[in-house]
């Protein structure tokens, strides 16, 4: 155990178990798991003797998975994504058991794969839709907003309060706050500025949905709660989230934010199907142009180049330098911790390369199928749904998932991000149009009243 005090990070599991036993799995998800996932660093973990380490969020998730399966598994409907996820976890298991040099590391990696990918996917598939849609979206935005004070302190002082607590009280080894342009790149609870930027973009997408929801239901002054409704009316949460994103000074998440904001403009058009096709063409063309520019930009990096240009050059050289190692790894790869490293490029800032190194060609193909099938599923939902609220929300998930899958080409999917990604994937594949019964309870009883004067001739 890293520190006796780390046993405290099992308390979310106890509280979550309490809610589940009382039949309130939804409350455990909203009140325990999401705050632990977004509000606590992934390295705030406990490792009991002879057991794999488990973070506070993973510990809170275990009872929720059991409760969700017991309560909602009978309504499960098989989809292709279930097969892709199972095969991806199978690929991870095979690569670790056959290629990892240390058996204990293999078992710990497999266990973490289940807690960080399969379990969030199951919860997303079973628990959220449709009744927790609004509550979950609101929780994600509010929890990220609560990190603002920590982020501003980190930006101004160059110190991360989570790292300070971890090193001085919990005996954890803190990470070094990165600097760019003389300012700290904020990471808040995500241990890395790039990962924090991805989480902020996801929150920006969900905040866009809350703004629409609040505006569409202006006949309910407290549709999101009195204080949040008032803030959304003046777009304050959106401005704060954008400020947090800019404070990370991370180009990858900014690129992802551009993709997300482009996707979020589609439901403004009357013919969303045509607008989706046009936007897809524009994004592909823009992506090819951006790739050509950055490839030229990175190839021009020489001694004395700027930090930004050196960083871009590093990512460009990653693919080239690791290509022989990837080829030698074959279909099953090397295992997550046993692959050879190129000197000076031990940090793999590309999730697609990371997957191929660890799980080989099979893992990469399945990983890309997971992303592509999720995006296609959400596009089909936007074309099939009739209610504007449901269409806007489908585009919200599409924006979040698309931005994430674009950004991980420039950063690894680490810390809390696998849980966030697979929670969104499971949620996307359970997305359904609101039923009439749910609509009748969610709308104001005064909605059907005439808002104009009736004139009799």
Short description:
The protein has 457 residues and is mainly alpha-helical.
How would you spell out the order of helices and strands?
Answer: HHEEHHHHHHEEHHHHHHHHHH
Radius of gyration: 23 Å
Summarize the main sheet. Answer: 2 strands, antiparallel
Average of pLDDT: 86
Which ranges are low-confidence, i.e. pLDDT below 50, for 5 or more consecutive residues? 436-457
Shape: globular
First-residue to last-residue Cα separation = 83 Å
Structure classification:
mainly alpha
Count of extended strands: 4
Percent strand:
under 5%
**Share in helix:** 55-70%
Number of helices: 18
Which strand order do you get reading across the main beta sheet? 1-2
Task: Describe the protein's architecture and organization.
Helix content is 66%, strand content 2%. The protein is mainly α and 457 residues long. Helix 6 crosses helix 9.
Keyphrases for this structure?
457 residues; mainly alpha; two-stranded antiparallel ribbon; two-stranded antiparallel sheet; 18 helices; 4 strands; 2% strand; disordered C terminus
């Amino acid at each position: 155990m890293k520190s006796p005090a780390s046993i405290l990070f099992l308390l979310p599991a106890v509280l979550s178990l309490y809610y589940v036993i009382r039949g309130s799995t939804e409350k455990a998800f909203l009140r325990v798991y999401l705050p632990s996932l977004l509000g606590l660093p992934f390295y705030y973990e406990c490792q009991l003797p002879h057991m794999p380490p488990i973070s506070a969020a993973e510990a809170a998730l275990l009872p929720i998975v059991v409760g969700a399966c017991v309560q909602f598994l009978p309504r499960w409907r098989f989809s292709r994504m279930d097969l892709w996820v199972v095969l991806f976890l199978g690929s991870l298991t095979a690569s670790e058991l056959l290629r990892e040099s240390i058996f204990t590391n293999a078992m710990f990696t497999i266990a973490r794969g289940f807690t960080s990918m399969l379990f969030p996917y199951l919860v997303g598939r079973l628990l959220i839709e449709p009744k927790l849609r609004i509550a979950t979206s609101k929780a994600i935005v509010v929890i990220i907003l609560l990190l603002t004070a920590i982020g501003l302190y980190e930006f101004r002082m160059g110190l991360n309060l989570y790292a300070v607590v971890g090193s001085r009280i919990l005996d954890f080894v803190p990470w070094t706050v990165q600097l760019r342009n003389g300012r700290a790149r904020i990471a808040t609870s995500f241990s890395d500025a790039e990962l924090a930027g991805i989480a902020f973009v996801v929150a920006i997408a969900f905040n866009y949905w809350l703004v629409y929801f609040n505006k569409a239901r202006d006949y309910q002054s407290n549709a999101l709660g009195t204080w949040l409704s008032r803030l959304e009316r003046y777009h304050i949460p959106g401005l704060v989230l954008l400020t947090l994103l800019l404070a990370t000074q991370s180009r990858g998440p900014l690129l992802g934010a551009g993709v997300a904001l482009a996707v979020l403009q589609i439901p403004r058009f009357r013919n969303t199907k045509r607008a989706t096709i046009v936007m897809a063409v524009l994004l592909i063309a823009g992506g090819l142009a951006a790739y050509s520019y950055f490839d030229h930009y990175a190839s021009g990096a020489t001694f004395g180049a700027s930090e930004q240009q050196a960083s871009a050059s590093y990512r460009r050289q990653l693919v080239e330098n690791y290509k022989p190692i990837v080829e030698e790894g074959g279909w099953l790869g090397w295992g997550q911790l046993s692959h050879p490293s190129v000197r000076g490029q031990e940090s793999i800032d590309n999730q697609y390369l990371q997957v191929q190194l660890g799980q080989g060609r099979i893992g990469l193909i399945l990983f890309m199928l997971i992303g592509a099938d999720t995006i296609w599923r959400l596009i089909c939902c936007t074309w099939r749904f009739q209610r504007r609220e449901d269409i806007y929300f489908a585009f919200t998930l599409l924006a979040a998932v698309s931005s994430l899958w674009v950004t991980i080409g420039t950063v690894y999917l680490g810390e809390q991000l696998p849980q966030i990604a697979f929670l969104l994937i499971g949620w996307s594949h359970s997305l359904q149009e609101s039923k009439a019964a749910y609509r009748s309870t969610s709308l104001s009883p005064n909605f059907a009243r005439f808002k104009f004067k009736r004139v009799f001739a």
